[in-house]
Amino acid sequence: MNAVLETIHNRVSLRKYADRPISETHMNLILDAAIAAPTAGNQCLYTILMIKDPKTKEALSESCDFQPFIARAPVILIFAADQQKWFDYFSSKGVKAFAKHSGLSFEAPQESDLLLACEDALIAAQNAVIAAESLGVGSCYIGDILENYEFHKELLGLEDWVFPVCMLCLGYHEENAVRVQQKRFDREFIVFEEKYRKLTNEELDRMFEDKEKGFVEKNHYGAENFAQMFYARKTDAAFSKEMARSVRVALKKWDGRRL
Amino acid sequence: MNAVLETIHNRVSLRKYADRPISETHMNLILDAAIAAPTAGNQCLYTILMIKDPKTKEALSESCDFQPFIARAPVILIFAADQQKWFDYFSSKGVKAFAKHSGLSFEAPQESDLLLACEDALIAAQNAVIAAESLGVGSCYIGDILENYEFHKELLGLEDWVFPVCMLCLGYHEENAVRVQQKRFDREFIVFEEKYRKLTNEELDRMFEDKEKGFVEKNHYGAENFAQMFYARKTDAAFSKEMARSVRVALKKWDGRRL
């Protein structure tokens, strides 16, 4: 196994950080690695917000499902899908008049533009994660940035066509900390050859066998198996309902309306 | 610079592949690296379709904006956001009856579930890209897999809650091939500190300075600058309109309806 594969397999989600800032040299290497990432048509349809202000970190630790460790990360990076810059550039260069003149329509970004920009943002984020890990800087993805869209828009000063799709907490690993790797599903349930294949109940049983070991018979959900417990914990959770609401509100901006 | 950073910066989008298959050892290392990627709540909300069948590759080279090189890639990996497996698992474990009994609602996956699963899929894809590069296997992302949703659903046998969010062409680099790195925007236009900041026209001019060197005064769009040319080429293009349509159709499946 080469150094790259070792770094990839060694990486764990780090939620406890050494009590020192990330050096400027390391931070620059991490950001440069993110910016080197593949991007659709070399458009770089994303923005990275680098956050160190304790007040903002505190606010994010609350708005992202009340996870206090977020506020203790030396640096937070938010990767936002961004079609605003290209749109503003078009606007500044008379594209609206040109489009009208040429019989084209001048359209606002739409759902497909959002997805494409999310791809750019996430690919860059994972480059940052791997680069960071190679420098001794651990990371943790926070999906909860998908919640509370209106609050984050205000907090971070986001424009309409800037959508925060993922967040990374970054900080050095503590010395001699134990790394616990989480087991993934077996490859046969993740990789299919040639075509998708709906799994049979027997296959699903094997797929979830390890997870089911985590089922607690006496649980306050009244669940009789792991699936029921997980569903209750997920559906009932405020964060999940909030995420659904928040994403739906955000999506409304990406309507491709004629301008 | 360490080996990981070197691999990240060395990587280019590879569209011309050496004429030999990817070894099984290398393919397994690439897939294992993808599966090791971070995933929301360790749910692995994605599926990787590994495609080697020449007929399928041919079909994809046409459906993904007629790019013949796609058919010549030894291996194609499609990363699909996948909430189907968890949903089927819930269904097989009596979650619907349990939910009714407990006063919860049993809901289909919705837009937020799609986005979260897209995150998993893209993060895994970028792990595959970096792992591949470290083994001499080049890659090219194909965003056009977002187009022709219905056709791809049929071609690949996708279930309703499986959405192909990105595609990778993979193959060995040819010996002594020249690598041309594409220049990205300057960091000041990608990374913002603490808050988002709408760029001024003067900043946009500087941001796009290099791209504007690619403007051809005599162009059949009648465009007077790079912005107008790029917009005309993008808006007018069939692939762009198709992508917008296709994504909108796919999104309709993710409606969170009560079941």
Automatic annotation (TrEMBL), chains A, B:
InterPro entries reported for this sequence: Flavin_OxRdtase_Frp, Nitroreductase, Nitroreductase-like
Source organism, top-level taxon: Bacteria
Keyword Cytoplasm: no
Keywords: Flavoprotein, FMN, Oxidoreductase
GO molecular function: oxidoreductase activity
Pfam families documented for this protein: Nitroreductase
Nitroreductase domain mapped to chain residues: 8-172
Similarity-based family: Belongs to the flavin oxidoreductase frp family.
Protein name as catalogued: FMN reductase (NADPH)
Organism lineage string: Bacteria, Bacillati, Bacillota, Clostridia, Peptostreptococcales
